[in-house]
């Protein structure tokens, strides 16, 4: 794991890990998902900036402010699934990206999530994590 680029990831925050979001709703439930639930203020601030820059964002997402770190991947070490982590610290960029022309997001650096993925027996990803701001209008 490389060290954090302090210029690209200058800010940090904390979130809480949520396993199996929407498990209580069988119509919307998808197994083996996990999110880091984040501070709404980050999304509010960057959405406001994007609006000022002429790039309005619909911040209404299905999950709320979050970092998706497991997306439907069944872990090898299932006995670790659902372990409750108090807080997780993550660093985020102040550069808004919208490379796919549909969503806006901030890149996230969080080595603890890579460690958790490894402990669960999940493969390394070819990309880093991100905090979705919302859909571009």
Tell me what you see in this structure.
This protein has 137 residues and is of the alpha+beta class. The protein has one domain. It contains two helices and seven strands. The longest helix is centred in the middle third of the chain and has 13 residues, at 40-52.
| Helical run tally | 2
Using only C-alpha atoms, the radius of gyration works out to 15 Å
Strand content: 25-35%
The overall pLDDT average reads 89
- Structural class, judged by helices and strands? alpha+beta
- Give the strand line-up of the largest sheet: 3-7-6-5-1-2-4
Helix and strand element order: EEHEEEEHE
Tell me roughly what share of residues is in helical segments: 10-25%
* Low-pLDDT residue intervals, each spanning 5 or more residues: none
Shape category: globular
Number of domains: 1
- Quantity of strands, as a count: 7
Reported for the largest beta sheet, the result is:
7 strands, antiparallel
Distance between the termini: 36 Å
């Amino acid at each position: 794991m490389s060290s954090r680029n302090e210029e690209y990831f200058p800010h940090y925050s904390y979130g809480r890990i949520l396993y199996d979001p929407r498990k209580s709703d069988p119509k919307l439930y998808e197994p083996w998902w996990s999110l880091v639930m984040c501070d709404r203020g980050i999304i509010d601030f960057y959405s406001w900036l994007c609006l000022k820059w002429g790039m309005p964002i619909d911040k209404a997402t299905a999950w709320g402010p979050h970092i998706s770190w497991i997306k439907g991947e069944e872990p090898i070490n299932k006995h670790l699934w659902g372990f409750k982590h108090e807080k997780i610290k993550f660093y985020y960029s102040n550069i808004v990206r919208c490379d796919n022309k549909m969503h806006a997001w901030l890149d996230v650096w969080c080595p603890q999530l890579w460690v958790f993925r490894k402990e669960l027996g999940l493969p390394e990803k070819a990309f880093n994590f991100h905090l979705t701001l919302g859909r571009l209008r």
